[in-house]
Amino acid sequence: NGALIVADHPDLDGTSQLSIEAWVYMDATCNTAICGIVSKRVNASDNEAYILYTNNGRLAFRLAAQTTQQLDMGTALSNNTWHHVVAVFDNSLNDSVTQRRMKLYVNGVL
Predict the structure, then answer these.
(1) DSSP one-letter code for 80
(2) Are the CB atoms for 99 and 71 separated by under 8 Å?
(3) In this predicted structure, what is the pLDDT of residue 20?
(4) Span 50-79, mean pLDDT?
(5) CB count, 10 Å around CB of 42?
(6) What is the widest separation between alpha-carbon atoms in the chain?
(7) Cα separation, 101 vs 108, whole angstroms
């Protein structure tokens, strides 16, 4: 229900490597909606951005740079429970398979 705003800095752009982690409390509201966790608009002129969010209760991570890449968890997060979530992006792998460059962890499990 709250938001934290962090001042912009180039180190937060994350277009080559990025890790985001947060503690989130899931409730019924996010079972039927999109609920943002962390987002950053890198560059408005060329639409670079990243967002970690839940979509109908499932954790998702989207990164838009030259192309848009997205990774979604297959199962929904449990309601009325705190979850430790982590999104990792590593473009240095030089791999075209999104699942190898992007990873999502919930409570330490990939």
Answers:
(1) T
(2) yes
(3) 92
(4) 88
(5) 18
(6) 39
(7) 18
Total-model pTM: 0.84
Whether residue 58 contacts residue 73, with contact meaning beta carbons closer than 8 Å, is answered with yes
In the chain the beta strands, taken as DSSP E runs, fall at: 17-26, 34-43, 48-55, 58-64, 68-72, 81-90, 102-106
Q: Which of 8, 76, 78 is closest to 39 using CA atoms?
A: 8
**DSSP code, position 5:** -
Six token digits for residue 75: 């199962």
Going by their DSSP bridges, the two strands 34-43 and 68-72 should be labelled as: unpaired
* pLDDT for residue 59 is more than 90: yes
Q: List the one residue out of 78, 83, 79 whose CA is nearest residue 108.
A: 83
CA dihedral of 18, 46, 2, 34, whole degrees rounded to 10: -90
Residue 45 confidence class, pLDDT cut points 50, 70, 90: low
